[in-house]
Predict the structure.
Amino acid sequence: MTETIGNALIRGQSLGLDRVDVQILLCTALQKPRTYLLAWPERMLTEPQKQLYQGWLARRLRGEPIAYIVGEREFWSLPLKTNASTLIPRPDTEILVETVLAHFGPAPTVCLDLGTGTGAIALALKSERPGWLISGIDRQPHAVELAQENAVTLGLTVEFRVGDWCADVAPGSVDLLVSNPPYIDADDPHLRLGDVRFEPAGALVAERGGLSEFEKIVEQASVCLTLGGALFFEHGWQQAAPVRAMLAVGGFSRVETVTDYGGNERVSLGYLEHQ
Ligand code: GLN
């Protein structure tokens, strides 16, 4: 037996699910905007829609992230396909994009996004700086495929490829490196809560208290950056001081940290002014 939109919403919430989550699942199952649910509560779901919604409610009840269930998450106003091969783009990461844009104008710039995942950072930058030559690297072939799909869907020309950070990038060939690498300590209790449990550990967890990948990238960056080039990192809220120290020791100058809207130190950067 089928049911109305209004009933389907009430049923979802009565299972203990969040109201907005339930609305997103139902409007995605119906392929309608969220406002449709409120405008047409008495319309009936078709049997296939009901089946789909039913399956999604069950997945959400098991804790699976909405972004994996519906296969999409918005970042920088760009709808990005998401799946379990990559991290779900976070609003926090928009600070990294904003900071890069505040430092680098529209002049042609060779930019590399390391650990690109869905391609979120690279694609957001391309949408704002069409004259830049932007590539994204990830060590996971499935992530690279997903990022390529996102680039095609959005009509943005960004090259995505598999790589080990920037180890195989030609020396002195990049003006700007950006990265949101894995930076969570394996013992962080945050890893056992909520959506994070379903995300690939390889995209989240790093050794040495979460700092190991910053270290590797700083070392490689000083080789592949041009003179005057810059490196921008997203990092955890308690990692700014060690990341700044790594940048300074790695030969970077004008090192600084930017806080996010929650008041946490979130992005650190430096320029390579001499080699
Ligand atoms: N900010 C993310 C989180 O706290 C982690 C992102 C990352 O490791 N790069 O879940």
Summary: The domain at 84-272 is CATH 3.40.50.150 (Rossmann fold).
